[in-house]
Write a structure and sequence with these properties.
The chain is an alpha/beta fold. The chain has a domain of 74 residues: Nucleotidyltransferase, domain 5. Helices cover 34% and strands 15% of the residues. The chain contains three helices and five strands; from the N terminus they run αβββαβαβ. Helix 2 crosses helix 3. The longest helix is centred in the N-terminal third of the chain and has 20 residues.
């Protein structure tokens, strides 16, 4: 009688199954970090790198008294969008550089961003706001 060399082993070897589970776990962990949530697109330069933008078309400042200045000219909040629009009328993708005191509430920063978004909506442009920071030493 001829005996076969390959015998069927009734025991289940789970070593390859655990390898597969770990590979799937790593795959899903990596792909989930690549998905970015919808957020407001605001460029925030890192203060430790000391990066500067090549060209800022308009500078907006907010002082400690919560007053707005467009190109060093005092501007009331209601005139913020039209004043910025006058400075960037002939620019396709302007950059608005925002200087603000660290004690100013975020609502005032959002007011400037809303003004630029209003200009973008009315003109169909893609102007952006960057927040100026002081380099750490």
């Amino acid at each position: 009688m001829i005996e076969t060399r390959n015998k069927i082993d009734p025991n289940f070897n789970s070593a390859s199954m655990s390898d597969l589970v770990f590979l799937l776990l790593i795959f899903f962990m990596l792909t989930s970090t690549l998905i970015s949530p919808n957020a407001i697109k605001v460029l925030l330069p890192k203060s430790t790198s000391g990066q500067t933008m090549a060209k800022q078309n308009v500078t907006v400042a907010i002082d400690t008294n919560y007053q707005f200045f467009v190109e060093n000219q005092p501007t009331p909040e209601s005139e913020l969008a039209p004043t910025i629009a006058n400075y960037i009328a002939n620019v396709q993708e302007a950059t608005i550089k925002l200087h603000t005191d660290k004690t100013v509430p975020v609502q005032y920063v959002v007011t400037v961003i809303d003004a630029v978004n209003k200009i973008n909506a009315s003109t169909g442009q893609k102007h952006k706001v960057i927040l100026a920071t002081e380099a750490t030493k």
